[in-house]
Every structure is written in C-alpha cells, then in structure tokens.
Amino acid sequence: MKTSGTLTSQATIVVVSYNHADFIEQCLRTSLAEEPAEIIVVDTGSTDGTRDIVAREFPDVKLLTPAENLGYGVGNNTGVSEIDTEYTIILNPDTKVKPGCFRALLEPLRKADRRITTPKILTYGGERINTCGNVDHFTGLGFTRGFNQSPTKFTEPESISGLSGACFALRTALYRELDGFDEAFFLYMEDVELSWRAALNEIDIRYVPDAVVFHEYQDVAMPSEKIYHVERGRYYTLRKHLDAQIAVALLPSLLLTELLTCGFALLSGTDGIRNKLRAIRDGLTMDVNKVQKNPQKVLTRLAIEIPEDQLTYNRFDQFGKKLANAAYRLNYRLLNL
C-alpha cells in the first residue's frame, strides 16, 4: 500500500475481469504508475490466463477469485467490500490510463462529498471519443456522450446526467451509502441505474476532461444478446424508479421508445426481436430492489433528448430522431416538473 500522502495514495482501484488476458497487463501497469493505495482485481472466472497474468506479473495487486460469475455489478461490489481507503475508482479491464488521470478524477472530490467523477474516455488508440460520461434519458435509454467525435471536443468540465461504468470515482463511503451497483444486473445498464440513484440522492455527476482513459470499445453494432441485457435493464430501471402516476404521464414517450427500440432490434433480424421479447418478459416480471421513489427529483436531472447522431443509418432515421425529440420535449414539458 502506498503511503506517500498524495491524493492518489488515498484511492483504491477496482478492476473486474473476465477473459481479458489481452488487456489486463496494460491496464494494471498504467494504473500502478499512478501510485494508488491498492489495486484489487476481481476475476469472475477467466479461462484465458488472465488470473495467471495478474498473479505472476503483479504480486502487489490483490486478486480475488469468486466461485462463480455473478456479473459486473456483483464483482465491483465484492471488490469495494475490501476497501479501507477514502476514495474508490472503478475501472474496466480493457482500458489503459493516461498519466495524471487518477489525480484529475480525484481532485474534484476533495471538497465535494456528494459527487461522482467520470473521465474523457477515448478509443484504445486515442483516435476518437468513446464517451465523455453518458447521456441518460428519462425513458431509460443510455447513450455514450460524444461518441466517435474528435478527442479535441468536450474540453470543459460540467455536470452531466450519467456516469460511465467503464471508469468513475467517488468517495468509498458514498459508494456504500448508495449500496453500490444493483446486483440484479448481470451485464450492461448497471451504470444507468446507478446514475438514476445518484439523481435521486442529489449527487452531482461531474465530467472531468483532464482525466483521460483509453478503452477497447466496439462500434455501435449491437449483438442480439446485448439487446436482451440492455432492454431488460431499462425496464427494470423504469420499474424501480417510476411510480404509476408518472409512468402514465410518460406513456407517450415510453411507447415512442418502444417503437425506436423495436426498430433497432429488427436490424439484428429474428434473433434481435426474440431477445427484445425476452427482455420485455423478464424485465417486467423480475423482482425489483426497492428504493424510496421520488421520480420528479430523478427526472429533473436526466436528459430530455436523445443524441440524433447515434445509431443513425440514413437520413430517414435521423429525421425520425428529430421527430422523436420533439415529442419527448412536449411530453416532458407537460409534466410540469
């Protein structure tokens, strides 16, 4: 454990891995160069030698090996349960960090107990933006903010609607106050729901452009199985946070989003539609971990429009998003929040 008294020496990094042998070494080497107090790797059943690389090459890294893979959220919660430092940084295993990244992420937390910071995340080679925090929409949709734009964009720090689960930082006490990730999520959308809970608890999500992470992120093409996890998580989030009165008031926007997501699922053919239907069935019937609902407070911190430049394949598609955003704005305005 580092004891130099620097800001990063007061932080522990949690990395949840699953078959990331191609990336884990770079992730850990660049993270160790930042001199955190500790790095905890939670390996959730890798079969490609990831565990061996961590154990052999990084003896100072704490390696946890749960008996079964219960998902990304559970893995991070397991890692954070081992932490006794002031700050926690969650980091994906298929990343590498630019020098000074962790300090830049932690600096805005020094005088703000109720804040989460998220970095500028570029593609692994640094050519384009992966995300600058997320755009979390009031219908449960989540988008990468600034996707595929030039790395020279998004240069100002600002408060945003959603953190990126690929990397974010907060006080360890705050992570525990929020109960960490909701463990009902196995994969995808857990960061969206955590952002909704941050909004519920009036926690600022702050984008920090001086903190830069490089992420091995695939293009927008979505495998049909991912459609299942994303949509299941969206339904779950809506059920967890919206009461019946607000859900009825939002029905035009929710039905419009169903139309958009069904159209997107169609692009993956019959498998896409099958997984969309599975998501409807499971997302609307699974048990929901309860919160003290205050949808008005949450909705005022979420995005009203969806990005028109994402998941766009032709001019007709882009025009459809413009019409959708007009409808979203009107429906939101009628809520009188």
UniProtKB/TrEMBL annotation:
InterPro entries attached to this UniProt entry = Glyco_trans_2-like, Nucleotide-diphossugar_trans
Secretion signal span? none
Query: Where is each Glycosyltransferase 2-like domain found?
Result: 12-178
Instruction: Classify the source by domain of life.
Output: Archaea
| GO MF | glycosyltransferase activity
Question: What Pfam families does its record include?
Answer: Glycos_transf_2
Keywords in alphabetical order:
Glycosyltransferase, Transferase
Give the family, as the similarity comment puts it. Belongs to the glycosyltransferase 2 family.
Q: What is this protein called?
A: Glycosyltransferase
Q: Which organism is it from?
A: Halobaculum saliterrae
